Amino acid sequence: MAPGVYDLISARFAANAGAEVLYMTGYGTVASHLGLPDAGLASFRDMLDRVSEMARVAEEYGIPLVADGDTGYGGLLNVDHTVKSYERAGASAIQLEDQVFPKKCGHTPGRAVIPVEEMAQKIEVACEARTSEDFLIIARTDARTVDGIDAALERIAAYDKAGADILFLESPESIEELERIGSSFDKPLLANMVEGGSTPVLDRERLGELGFSLALFPAIGFLAAGRALDVAYRTLVKDGRTVSAETLYPFDEFSKLMGFERVWDFDKKHARG
């Protein structure tokens, strides 16, 4: 169960909650960093900087970070550079998708996919580019919405053959489709659980029964934060008061989570009397 993280506060909260793996969501990261939709507007450098920062937090907690690599930010040479850069930045896995650039969020309309042979070659290049086989390549197809479930399954089979470590068929539209995916492949499978998206949102036990090894919950963080912020800010602006203390995370605990205890200890140690 990989909670989506989109900035360093969300990364710390997810890790502190006991998450065994973090997922750097492209949608949330672009929204948080640029205030823009996840529609191919963020650059490679925008995302790489976020990978490096979130990987630092994940390493501090001793857990892996799965990072959204979009389409690899271009052609085959771009994919090679992206994989090398994400690995050096500290990510444990990169997700690459077969959308036409500029890509769009997988649970929004208007997507298109590149030829299957072109994406398979990208996966081959990605596998060659990594320096360690412990750095995992996740192959994603967005063909379900465009061409149907059968075409999407055929694409995933091709990416499996090309060497991907984890297979990701985006936006299945029913439990029956999830069952087909889960029974079709031997490699680890990824399910993307987007609250309000195209795919039924299931729990850990059910997803395991269906044959999935990893479940991303990319939107849970920013949707939860969005609701809390909306209530808090509207109460402040409209009613001229803050929300009740019970609805807010305690300030002293928040300060500790951000690392202020080390600052306080450091100041005491080096205080000049």
Automatic annotation (TrEMBL):
EC numbers for this chain: 4.1.3.1
Keyword Lyase: yes
Organism superkingdom: Bacteria
Organism encoding this protein: Salipiger mucosus DSM 16094
Listed Pfam families: PEP_mutase
CDD domains hit by this protein: ICL_PEPM (cd00377)
Keyword Lyase applies: yes
Keyword list, A-Z: Lyase
A molecular-function term among this protein's GO annotations: isocitrate lyase activity
Protein name as it appears in the record: Isocitrate lyase
